Amino acid sequence: MDRRTKNLVKRLKKSDIAIIDHDDIDEVAANSLIDARPQAIINTQASITGRYPAKGVYKILKAGIPVLDEVGENIFSQLREGVLIEVRGNQVFWGKTVIAEGKELSLEDVRLKLKEAHQNIQLELDHFVDNTMEYAKKEKDLLIGNIDVPVLDTYMLNRHVLIVVRGSSYKEDLRTISPYIQEEQPVLIGVDGGADALLEFGLKPDLIVGDMDSVSDTALSSGAEIVVHAYADGTAPGLDRIESMGLKAKTFPMPGTSEDVAMILAWEYGASLIVAVGSHSNMIDFLEKGRKGMGSTFLVRLKVGSILVDARGVSQLYKQHLPSKYLLQLLVAALIPITVILAVSPATRPFFRLILLQLKIIFNI
Fold this sequence. Notes:
GO molecular function, one term: ATP binding
Domain Thiamin pyrophosphokinase catalytic: 183-221
Keywords: ATP-binding, Kinase, Membrane, Nucleotide-binding, Transferase, Transmembrane, Transmembrane helix
Number of strands: 14
Transmembrane segments: 326-347
Distance between the termini: 86 Å
Low-confidence stretches: none
Domain SteA-like C-terminal: 312-362
Oligomer: single chain
Helix content: 40-55%
Structural class: alpha/beta
């Protein structure tokens, strides 16, 4: 049980039933739940409200994990983690007592909600844009440049910087751009759990940025430089965790997301190119983030846009296949020395003579 899905998945096991408090489940949360493979998921809220096309619960159901929706928040006060419960249809039993009832979601239910969401998206987008512009007016210093960045040891001047967020497609992105990483050796920045994503692929982060709520102790102890994302007033709750581990960190007070912080640091320290992995890059990504306004994020992308590239764009440049004519030329070039060696080698001369004799017999030469 946990009201924060990203905390829950750290403890969730295959034999468990997950109890969450998460409306409009996003794809990142869905992927983390699917990876844990619980027996079932009980949600106190609506896994898809129909406000916008949140496809997380669709992925969960397609993965074969049943979802019981809208059981109400009382279940958190009625149960404690570790007890044995049973889900029968739309009811939750603790022993013989029904402690909650909800709606057992089907794929057809979700399809109808997605259809409704596509009709509502215009209104939701209007609200999002209005809020974003309101926040942008307050946070315009990000664009103007009046912001104090912490002094870093990580050298980024005229280098490529790879910023990894553990978003919905980070695994695919990292897999497809592995040739680019090997060739360019970019500075590696992990945004919270993005640091663990790098370690997952055998890569060591140079810098870890975030509020430190979803990054592992292993990643924090990897030797990377650490920057704690602080609130605009300077308070940094994540710093307590770093200090309790005996590690050193710098703080960076800034509105917006930790992803924004990472991009600003790369920009301010002179990166020649910023490659974003698993980041928020489209309308649904921003709506899924759940903030009323993304003013700072909007402004950050305006500021760094000239050097910002999505990982999927980079992958198109680094996964090109050789044309067949070049492969044929390589094959011929490889066969020529092999043929010459075989022809002049004393050990293979009798073999070639036998082949030649056999050909003469076949063709009556």
